[in-house]
Amino acid sequence: MTIPTGEILIDLEALRHNIDVLTAQVAPSQVMVVVKNDAYGHGLIDVTRAAVDSGVSWIGALDLPTALSLRDAGVSSPTRIFAWLLDPEEDLAPAIAASVDLGISTVAQLNTIAASQAANPARVHLKIDTGLHRNGATPEDWPGLVARARDLEDQGVVEIVAVWTHIAEADDHEDSLSIARFEDAVAIARDLGVRAPLRHLAASAAGFARSDARFDLVRFGAFVYGLPPGDGPSAESMGLRQVMTLRAPISLIEALPDGRRRASIDLGFADGLSTSAPGRIAVAIDGRRHPLVGPLEVDRAWIALDDDSDVAVGDTVTVWGDGSAGEQTLQEWGNATDTMSEELVVRLSPRIPRRLV
Ligand SMILES: *Cc1c(COP(=O)(O)O)cnc(C)c1O
User: Fold this and answer.
1) pLDDT tens across 323-339, in order?
2) Smallest Cα–Cα separation from 27: which of 60, 52, 56?
3) Residue 136 in contact with ligand 1 by CB distance below 6 A
C-alpha cells in the first residue's frame, strides 16, 4: 500500500486496553483521561470519544477552549470535563453554562465566577499547592480560599466538587511530603464545612505505582497513550500498549560514491522529528532495524542500508511504534535522544495525516 509522505496511526483498541488496565489498577478510585495538547498528539476528539465509550466519566482538558470544543463536539453531561489553566482575562460564563469543572486557585478567580452571574452554580475544584509551585493556593492562603468558596456555595454561586493538587512524581520522598500536605488541606477544608469533596492528586506515574496517591480520582495522561517515562519500566512490563505508530514510505534509494546505499523518507525536522535522532535511532523496514544517518533535513530523513538490504521505493518504514514490527518504541526514542516521549508526540506537525486503526 502506498501512503502519503508519512502517517500517524492511532490504535484505538490499544487505547481502550490501556484505559481498562488503568481502571483496574486504581479501582475503586476513578480515572480521568487527560487530553491536553490534542490528546498528546493523538487527536482530541477521537481519543475523548473512545475514552467515554470505554466508560470513563472524567476528561482532563487543561484549558477552556479545549473543554468547550469537547462540549461542542457532543461530549455532554454527565461526562465531566475538567479545565484548570484559566486565563485571568477569560470570560468564565460559557464554561459555567456548559457545566465545565473549573480548577480554582485564587479568591480572585472565585470573584470572577461570582461576577459572571451564571444561571447555574459553577463546579469548582479547589487547588492547594503541595510543593510543585505550579498554581494552587499556598497553605497560608488556603483557609481564605476555602472560606470564600463556602460562602459562594451557600449563595448558590458555586458547588465545591473537589480538593486537588499536582505533584512532581520525580522523587518518592518528595511525593510523600506532598501527600501529607494534601491530607492537611483536605482536613482544613472539611473543618470549614466542605462536604465529601472528591480528592485528586496523582498523574500517571504516582497514580499507577502508589495506592496512597490515588485518593478518589487519578489524572492519567501519558500512560493512557502507553508512554512511560524514560527512567521507569517499559509500557509492556506494565501491561500497557503504545497507541501511536509513525511510519512513512521510502521515497528514494541512492548509491553513495563509496558504494554504500541510503534510503530517504519525507519526514524531517519540520514534521517534528528530532535533529538528534540520526546516529542514535534505528527505524524498522520489513522487521529489520536500520540506523537513521545524518544530517536530518527540514523535510527528509536518511536511513543507512546494509549491502543485503532488499528494500524498494514505496516500502514502509516504521519510525516508531509499539515494537511489534521491530521498531523502537517512543520510550526508546526518548531515551536515545534525551527527550521525553510526550515531547516527541506533541511536537509532530499537524500536517502529518492521522488515521484511526
Ligand atoms: C498533564 C497533567 C496530568 C497528566 O500527567 P501525565 O504524567 O501525563 O499522566 C495530570 N494532571 C495535571 C494537572 C496535568 O497538567
Assistant:
1) 999 999 999 999 999 99
2) 56
3) no
pLDDT above 90: percentage of residues in the chain: 92
Q: What is the spatial distance between Cα 29 and Cα 95, in angstroms, rounded to a whole number? A: 26
Question: Minimal CA–CA distance to 126: which of 69, 29, 207, 193?
Answer: 193
Whether the full predicted model's pTM is greater than 0.90, yes or no, is yes
Q: Are 73 and 218 members of one domain?
A: yes
* Residue 330 forms part of a structural domain: yes
Q: What is the residue whose three cell numbers read 538528534?
A: 276
Q: For 281-292, write each residue's pLDDT tens digit.
A: 999 999 999 999
CATH code of the domain containing 319: 2.40.37.10
Q: What is the mean pLDDT of residues 88-94?
A: 92
> 90 with 194, same domain?
yes
Q: Evaluate whether residue 237 is within a structural domain.
A: no
Residue whose Cα lies nearest atom 13 of ligand 1: it is 166
Query: Which mutation among 34, 63, 164 tests ligand 1's pocket best, with the greatest number of atoms within 8 A of CB?
Result: 34
Q: Tell me, yes or no, whether 278 lies in a domain.
A: yes
Q: What is the pLDDT of residue 147?
A: 98
Residues 104 and 159 in one domain: yes
Q: Domain for residue 233, yes or no?
A: no
Q: Is 163 helix (H, G, I), strand (E, B) or coil?
A: strand
Coil, helix or strand at residue 136: coil
Q: Is 224 in the pocket of ligand 1 (CB under 6 A)?
A: no
